[in-house]
Specification:
22-stranded antiparallel β-barrel; 6% helix
């Protein structure tokens, strides 16, 4: 009887299945000359079944016979409803071309990009369909979470955390292990202290979406172990103008006493156009020669003011022209913001091997920062040809006044030593990019794509100057000339050119038109030439040094009077090391095969051969300045294989495997023999003997997409790093004066797991309709083994330890609530939390434990409202918990510690309140 029942059940199921109908079709984009429209939403109204079109604009459903309504929608396009009926076993094809609404449907997206990859649902769909392991974030999510810059936005992706002033850490690996592309083209950094352009300089208005590749593919450069970040600038298909303004207040930062260099206390500097007065006087000549010159135009004075509110402004416009039967789309966006920042806390170093403080100071910093950006984008699209131009300009300035009070060099008998740093920093970045594609055959079976990028950057710290003395009161010090007092430094790096390009040929083949295989072959590479200059002068006493009292904020008149009286003069003491020429180049040829074995299994296997050259022309400190340059060359040929496998277990879940080899180059400053000296005795020294690291990577990932807006993923990964680059403290013969430097260790291993979820809470109860929860976390175990043959390795406290810069865990989460107030006001409220675990800032030496960055908990709230589809209002509270940031010596010291506190640096950021308004028309 049971067998009969089973047979009947199977027969009934087979008959029912046979009675199903199939509805499929293709959605085209009228605004793009009827090109396929990926990521459009296709919904069966009566059954709530929904999907998104693939990269060819195609979709498919299996449904019961009956009468239905097909709903086609796409952000910024007119929604279309199509009634249809199907019979049992029928194969019905419904094709349609969607047209733009003219922009009135644009809501949260800052600037519409073709295919709307800013949408969270579209990016999830692309992530599901891609063979490689990648994650993305679009302007819609950035806007929803109240994020104003790319760097902050990327911390919402699994395994990514941000450390103030040090950039992004990905999978526990710091800045040097990451790489940056803009529109798939290599670009340089604008700072010698960062591997990539600080992404907080990219306002979200110039960004469409961002791809993060945590695994290697042959068409991207092999220089990464954490991730390659590809920023796609905004492109538009709509006509729209948007004006925005924002203001912000941070506790203990704004509307409080603030010290500002007299040079920067003017309108020109407040808009980021100052700094010219800090140039090195021409009397010193173009080559150091120990000359004396006093013709400085920069002042030593500092003005005490009230810091105003932070402000930001932006304007963007997008549109299109008819060019014959085709269209030319354009976008223009410009943004400017300024910020006032105060940091106060302890600033200590330990004397090597003695268990006591070398420096024991309190530090207070006053930073006035400006950032400006401008984007011009053009896009032309014909039947088989696409062409894009992007021009991107970034400029940032920072005026810093830093006061330190306490004792240095173990001189506890002078607890009121005073050190003032007056520093100005500026970077300019201008990139021009041309990229496009051409279908060699009308059916797109044969195609080529490529691009060229030309970038110029300038970085400078002109007239970085110090005053030292003994604090008498809040406004007065006792000072005398000599030692590190009146030290002036001039540091700049000009990237005379950075040229990059790529070209790729693609051949699609196979019997199944919906699942074609693809063979790719191509080249990508870059070359750049930079010149680094570091010169310094001292205010030397001519007739002995006599202490005197002086108002520290108004010291310039006293110095100028002493120069006129010939008591002091500024003498250059730059050495032969003052100038370094750097040439870098990478050339990579690759091939890649995407093979669809069947409907469930896809292979992406490839190989990249990449040759890298790093050449330094330099002089040693012992060389006469007139000597010819020495040359140091580091050249490597890397053979970099990769394998990506995707197995579709079901329509909504995948299993992925990725295996690859990559390499890592050091940050520019890490590899330069430059010694940046501070008046408190601390220095930072580069190391031109650094070698590239080699990385061996493996990932296994399981992911489920229950709906177009939900996802759960679990990943395990492993890395073996040969010769990792790490930060340490240099051995000192006297034990005094801490020097941070960099070295290659023997090896490191990293094992980790990542978990990520995006859930609509309405699946728990209808009362939570509109609520969603996002969560991701990374757990890691790392081990670094010292190279016993490395000079100075016997100075290390531990032979095995965690990898420097790696956190053992980090967590990001957010809760979102979307709701309407009436028919014209749509609202989104988000609560966002992130935290990272303890990590080694610098490796412990001389019996000391390591210096650790302690966990930092950050909680933010954002409320956004869209009114009448024209006005956007936003209110946010940043860093609600306002925890103490600390950098602390560990407790596993092998020498006796006599000090009561192991904290070496600390400060609070303050709680930030900001609001913005924008109007689109």
């Amino acid at each position: 009887m049971k067998i009969k029942f089973l047979l009947l059940t199977v027969l009934f199921s087979a008959i029912s299945f046979a009675q199903n109908a199939t509805v499929s079709g293709q959605i085209l984009d009228k605004e793009m000359n009827n090109e396929p429209l990926p990521f459009a939403t296709v919904l069966i109204k009566e059954t709530k079944q929904n999907t998104a079109t693939d990269e060819n604009g195609k979709y498919s459903f299996s449904i019961q016979p009956g009468n239905y309504t097909l709903v086609l929608s796409y952000l910024g396009y007119a929604t279309k409803e199509i009634a249809f009926a199907v019979n049992a076993g029928e194969l019905k094809t419904i094709n349609h071309t969607l047209a733009s609404t003219g922009g009135e449907e644009l809501k949260e997206v800052v600037i519409e990009v073709q295919y709307s990859k800013e949408k969270e649902s579209a990016l999830l769909q692309e992530q599901q369909k891609a063979v490689e392991i990648k994650q993305s974030i679009g302007s819609q999510e950035l806007s929803r979470k109240g994020i104003s810059d790319v760097e902050e936005g990327l911390t919402k992706i699994t395994g990514i955390s941000k450390v103030e002033s040090k950039g992004l850490f990905i999978r526990g690996l710091e800045d040097r292990y990451n790489n940056l592309l803009i529109n798939n083209l290599a670009v340089p950094s604008n700072s010698p202290f960062k591997k990539i352009v600080p992404l907080d300089q990219f306002p979200t208005d110039v960004v469409g979406y961002i791809d993060v590749f945590k695994t290697f593919n042959p068409n991207i450069y092999g220089d990464f172990a954490g991730a390659t970040i590809d920023v796609k600038t905004s492109q538009s298909t709509k006509e729209q103008t948007k004006i925005s303004f924002g203001t912000g207040f941070t506790t203990n930062n704004n509307l409080s006493d603030f010290l500002l260099s007299e040079d920067a206390d003017n309108t020109k500097s407040k808009f980021g156009f100052g700094g010219q007065e800090r140039a090195l006087p021409v009397g010193y000549g173009s080559i150091p020669a120990g000359r004396i010159n006093n013709d400085y135009t920069s002042s030593w004075n500092v003005n005490k003011v009230k810091s105003p509110l932070n402000t930001s402004t932006g304007i963007s416009h997008t549109g299109k022209f008819d060019v014959g039967s085709n269209k030319l789309y354009y976008v223009f966006a410009t943004n400017f913001d300024n910020k006032y920042q105060v940091r106060e806390g302890v600033d200590r170093t330990f004397s090597q091997g003695q268990g006591i403080y070398d420096n024991n100071l309190t530090k207070k910093q006053y930073k006035f920062q400006t950032q400006a950006s401008a984007l011009i984008g053009l896009q032309f699209k014909a039947d088989r040809f696409k062409f894009n131009y992007t021009g991107l300009y970034l400029k940032s300035t920072e005026n810093l006044i830093q006061d330190q009070v306490g004792y240095t060099r173990t001189a506890v008998q002078n607890p009121n030593e005073f050190i003032r740093l007056n520093q100005y920093e500026q970077s300019d970045y201008f990139a021009n990019q041309f990229f496009g594609s051409y279908k060699l055959s009308k059916d797109d079976k044969h195609s080529i794509n490529g691009g060229l990028s030309y970038t110029r950057t300038k970085y400078s710290q002109p007239d970085r100057k110090f005053i030292t003395g003994t604090k008498i009161s809040d406004t007065e010090i006792n000072t005398q000339y000599g030692s590190n007092n009146l030290l002036r430094q001039f540091f700049n790096i000009d990237n005379n050119f950075h040229m990059s390009g790529n070209i790729e040929y693609n051949y699609k083949f196979g019997k199944n038109e919906d699942r074609l295989n693809k063979l790719s072959a191509g080249y990508s590479g870059f070359a750049e030439y930079m010149v680094s200059k570091f010169r310094f002068t001292f205010g030397n006493p001519n007739n002995g040094a006599i202490p005197y009292n002086v108002p520290v904020n108004d010291i310039d008149a006293f110095i100028q009077n002493d120069i006129a009286s010939n008591f002091i003069s500024f003498t250059e003491q730059s050495t032969a090391e003052w100038k370094t020429k750097v040439f870098q180049r990478a050339d990579g040829a690759y091939t890649n095969l995407l093979l669809n074995v069947n409907e469930k299994l896809e292979f992406n296997v490839g190989l990249r051969a990449e040759n890298t050259i790093r050449e330094y022309k330099y002089k040693s400190i012992v060389d006469p300045i007139s000597n010819p340059y020495r040359t140091k060359t580091n050249e490597n040929l890397y053979i970099l294989p990769s394998l990506n496998v995707k197995y579709a277990m079901k329509d909504d879940r995948n299993l992925r495997l990725a295996i690859s080899k990559t390499y890592t180059k050091p940050v520019l400053f890490e590899s330069l023999d430059i010694n940046l000296i501070n008046a408190d005795g601390t220095t930072e020294l580069g190391n031109s003997d650094l070698e590239n690291s080699q990385n061996y990577n493996a990932d296994l990932k399981f992911e489920v997409f229950p709906t177009s807006k939900e996802m759960f993923a679990a990943t395990i990964f492993a890395k073996y790093i040969d010769q990792p680059i790490e930060r340490t403290i240099l051995a000192s013969a006297t034990g005094s004066g801490q020097t941070i430097t960099y070295f290659n260790n023997k090896s490191a291993t990293l094992f980790g797991a990542e978990f990520e979820a995006i859930l609509q809470l309405s699946r728990l109860t209808d009362k939570l309709e509109g609520f969603s929860f996002g969560f991701n976390t990374s757990l890691m175990i790392t081990e670094s083994t010292i190279d016993k043959k490395r000079p100075g390795s016997d100075f290390d406290t531990f032979t095995k330890r965690n990898l420097q810069g790696a956190s053992n865990w980090l967590l990001n989460s957010d809760i979102k609530y979307e709701f309407d107030l009436g028919s014209t006001c749509k609202n989104t409220a988000s609560l966002v939390y992130n935290v990272y675990g303890e990590r080694i800032y610098a490796v412990g030496v001389a019996g000391y434990d390591h210096i650790y960055e302690k966990p930092f908990h950050k909680l933010d709230f954002v409320w956004g409202s869209s009114i009448n589809k024209k006005w956007d209002l936003k209110f946010s509270v940043d860093n609600i918990l306002n925890p103490l940031y600390t950098r602390e010596r560990g407790t596993e010291n092998k020498i006796s510690i006599e000090e009561s506190s192991l904290v070496e640096q600390s400060y609070k950021r303050g709680v930030g309140f900001s609001t913005s308004i924008s109007y689109s028309f």
